[in-house]
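Lab notebook: predicted structure, single chain.

Context: the supervisor wants predicted structures on file for every construct in the current expression panel, including those that have not yet been purified. This is the next one on the list. No modifications to the sequence; it matches the entry in the shared construct table.
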Amino acid sequence: MSGRRKLILFDQTQNERGRLDTTYSQLAKILQDNDFDVEPYTEYMILAKNLERADAIVFGCPNSSKLRPAEIDILKRYVKKGGGLMLLSLSGGDRGLMNNLSQVSKGFGISFENTAVRDERNNAGLPTMPIITNVVVHPVTEDVQDILVPSGCTLNVTTKATTIASTSDTADPPNKPVIAIAEAGKGRVLCVGSYEVFRKGGGMKHKGNQAFAVNAIKWLSGEIRTAKPSEVVKDQEKKEEKKQLKASVEASAEMEKTMRRLVNAVFDLQKDIGKLDKKLANVDKNIEMLRDQFQDFAEKTQSQLGVMIPSRQFQTDEENQAAEIEADAKALEKEIKSVQQLRDHIEERHSSGAMPKDTYTEQVEKLDTRLKTLNKNLEKKKKELEKLIQ
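Prediction complete. Output recorded below exactly as produced.
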């Protein structure tokens, strides 16, 4: 096959939705610009002798049409002898489209499922137009960050095959293959859950799809080699490690911000309490003034009119003071408990290695200072209360 342009056939015998002269005209132009010859395959039925000159053949979503058993066998032998086979479906899979592509692909470890992929978050304007970002490192995904897979179905992939792209966590169904490949004998197979990935004005508007189209045909036709499995796994592991590390750093940073806000809130609260204490002191003065005025009024009324008015409408100064001290002591005890719990939590995070030493030291110093002040104030209140009770 060397010394000539690679030939890619696009089957037209199975009532395909993806047709070379219309749906895939943009794809054809891109492949021609990359030194491929493209032709429609129109001779019914599929014969081995007609495939001998082709480097790969594409089935662009057969609609209400099924390959015969003999044709399926021919395609399987074609792959094993070194040919490339691309099978493209749509939402609903074999059952929805009433075709039997899975009868061809399942021998290579791939089958099309009766599903319809939706993604409310990662899409190109509609949930049925998901943008796939879970892309595996492979020659067919070189320079491809993401792929637009409109109206697609998911794939069932066994150990015979390799998943190349899958849906996101937010998709329905989530984390399911939509693109997969397999190698058998000397040949290669590529399956995609949507023929619209290469549709003119559809998927081909997306930059990633254009790069994927060229890579896929180059790989199927044998123009580029397959990466070693170990290399693919290693690249994926590095990608996953970076992703997990980034998530861990972001979570740790957010936790540190939260801790700082909590510690600062403790001190802000103390400032507010101080302001409130001043206001309460003013209220106490007013109450005391009213109590004295009432007492004076009661005594004058009794002296002038001989009418007895109960004078103990208010608590005495000592009683008021004791109640205030007890309330203050309880508030201090509650605040001490809260600050201590926060300190214990910071201690646990530092011990587990989740908090840097400098952050730990800064927060603990603040809280220890606060605890010392609170305990000192509590002891003072207790002594004041003891003096009043004696």
